[in-house]
């Protein structure tokens, strides 16, 4: 999941500007404010005591880690990939510590391990989502876990009536699974909220925290020799690359593979407001969505349409965008082509001068329906058909039915995993998202591809699996393809897979099944 507020945060990072006021305010600890007030010489002992900052509270309201229950162990069986598997589930927390040994965060995890499988040969897949600020319930209950949240047939945007069911497509068919929530998401709690931004809410800090959590789980469960895979969605793509690097540098652990679903591989290539390549990359997704809405796209003809759309977008379309703005007949021909390919109203295409901004309300709204950035074939009734600022325009996926993953996780953990807590499960924490630091020192870290190049060169057996949805306008498949085509070493070890669906392509049962089968082949030792 890539939260919609990444664009302004990214712009801040690229400009190497100060962080948002919220983050700066949150960094000021109350004890610092009190310490700056000197006591007057005539102040009595009682008055001095009254002016001291309050002692750290032990009330659960102000100390939420006290509401985390003990680790829970349960035993289950299920049929996955056509085979019945007995497995053990453990839901609990891993404690991260600073150099002095003081706890800095409690990391919530859920691990599923096949009973009786040889540990040295059984792969382990470590999962995280993106955002930043998204919890792992999306991948856990959406794609890979033993149970899956399903939405009503014929009404995929109905999250209120979603139900949990056994997941025959669980990746347990191929590997043991460990789902990890980032600090500030799910039930992962930093011990000192005032220090959380500096400790965890940044590209490098985040990668180091995940690397340590993975090392803790692997070492405490005797799995350091197991084949290791990292699975990340959206910003989790960038995160997977950085975590693999941190595992190697900080924990001396090399991974066997990366699985990246709808990945943000290079943030600049997703910035449709400022980057001309990003503008070209969304066009094929618009085109395939338009074909699907007209019932002209099939599994058989999709590869041909993908290739044609990509060739046009990176050829005539991009050449027109980077050249002098067309006029006269040339302009009419260009706007006619874009209109025909996308199915968007011609007046919108002309007003945007062919540079389609996916988040723009006039691009997403047509015929009383408001289409999603995360799946350009999904729509809801437009609550603002008369027009509204782009930021006030809701998204059918992010703001709608996928919110059900949060309450589903709370229910599933309590009833199936025996992990019960009064704490709400933080599915998408926008405070984490807006506080995120994309920099290392003064350098923005929005292009992890050099790190991926190094990993592929240093580890000659490292393999990469990339999955994209046809209709994703947030992390379009064309951007993944372009990145892969420009990897000089190890390109033959990168597989690019495209499925019907959007950013969370796994919400479509057929695509979830197809991806699970492809991943099973990828994970096979």
Automatic annotation (TrEMBL):
Cite a single GO BP annotation: proteolysis
Top-rank taxon: Bacteria
Q: Which GO MF term does the entry hold, naming one?
A: serine-type carboxypeptidase activity
Q: Does the keyword Ribosomal protein apply?
A: no
- Pfam families per UniProt: Peptidase_S10
The alphabetical list of record keywords is: Carboxypeptidase, Glycoprotein, Hydrolase, Protease, Signal
- The leader peptide range reads 1-26
Task: Report the InterPro entries cross-referenced here.
Answer: AB_hydrolase_fold (IPR029058), Peptidase_S10 (IPR001563)
Task: Please give the residue ranges the record annotates as the region Disordered.
Answer: 44-73
The keyword Hydrolase is annotated on this UniProt entry: yes
Name of the protein this chain belongs to: Peptidase S10
Q: Which organism is it from?
A: Acetobacter garciniae
Q: What is the lineage of its organism?
A: Bacteria, Pseudomonadati, Pseudomonadota, Alphaproteobacteria, Acetobacterales
């Amino acid at each position: 999941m890539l939260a919609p507020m990444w664009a302004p945060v990214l712009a801040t990072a690229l400009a190497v500007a100060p962080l948002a006021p919220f983050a700066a305010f949150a960094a000021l600890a109350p004890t610092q404010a009190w310490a700056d007030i000197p006591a007057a010489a005539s102040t009595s002992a009682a008055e001095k005591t009254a002016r001291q900052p309050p002692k750290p509270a032990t009330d659960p309201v102000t100390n939420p880690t006290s509401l985390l229950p003990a680790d829970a162990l349960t035993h289950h069986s299920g049929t996955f990939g056509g085979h019945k598997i007995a497995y053990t589930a453990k839901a609990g927390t891993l404690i991260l510590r600073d150099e002095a040994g003081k706890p800095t965060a409690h990391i919530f995890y859920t691990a599923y391990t096949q009973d009786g499988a040889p540990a040295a040969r059984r792969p382990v897949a470590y999962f995280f989502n993106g955002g930043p600020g998204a919890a792992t319930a999306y991948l856990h209950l959406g794609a890979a876990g033993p149970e899956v949240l399903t939405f009503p047939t014929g009404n995929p945007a109905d999250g209120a009536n979603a139900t949990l069911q056994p997941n025959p497509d669980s990746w347990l068919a191929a590997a043991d699974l460990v789902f990890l929530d980032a600090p500030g998401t799910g039930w992962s709690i930093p011990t000192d909220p005032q220090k959380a931004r500096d400790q965890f809410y940044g590209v490098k800090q985040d990668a180091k925290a995940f690397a340590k959590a993975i090392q803790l789980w692997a070492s405490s469960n005797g799995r350091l020799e197991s084949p290791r895979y990292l699975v990340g969605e959206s910003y989790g793509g960038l995160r997977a690359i950085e975590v693999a690097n941190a595992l190697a540098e900080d924990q001396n652990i090399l991974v066997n593979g990366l699985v990246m679903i709808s990945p943000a591989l290079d943030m600049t290539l997703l910035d449709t407001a400022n980057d001309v390549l990003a503008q070209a990359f969304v066009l094929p997704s618009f085109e395939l969505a338009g074909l699907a809405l007209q019932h002209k796209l099939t599994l058989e003809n999709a590869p041909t349409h993908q290739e044609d759309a990509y060739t046009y977008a990176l050829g005539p379309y991009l050449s027109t965008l980077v050249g002098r703005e067309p006029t006269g007949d040339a302009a009419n021909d260009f706007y006619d082509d874009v209109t025909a390919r996308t199915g968007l109203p011609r007046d919108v295409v002309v007003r945007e001068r062919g540079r389609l901004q996916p988040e723009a309300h006039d691009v997403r709204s047509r015929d009383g329906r408001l289409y999603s950035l995360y799946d350009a074939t999904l729509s809801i009734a437009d609550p603002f058909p008369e027009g509204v600022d782009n930021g006030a325009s809701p998204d059918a996926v992010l703001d709608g039915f996928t919110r059900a993953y949060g309450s589903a996780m709370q229910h599933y953990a309590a009833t199936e995993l025996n992990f019960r807590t009064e704490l709400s499960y933080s599915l998408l924490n926008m405070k984490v998202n807006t506080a995120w630091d994309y920099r290392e020192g003064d350098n923005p870290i929005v292009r992890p591809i050099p790190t991926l190049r190094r990993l592929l060169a240093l580890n000659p057996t490292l393999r990469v699996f990339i999955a994209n949805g046809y209709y994703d306008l947030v992390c379009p498949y064309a951007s993944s393809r372009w990145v892969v085509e420009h990897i000089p070493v190890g390109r033959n070890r990168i597989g690019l897979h495209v499925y019907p669906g959007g950013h969370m392509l796994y919400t479509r049962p057929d695509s979830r099944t197809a991806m699970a089968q492809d991943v099973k082949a990828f994970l096979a030792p």
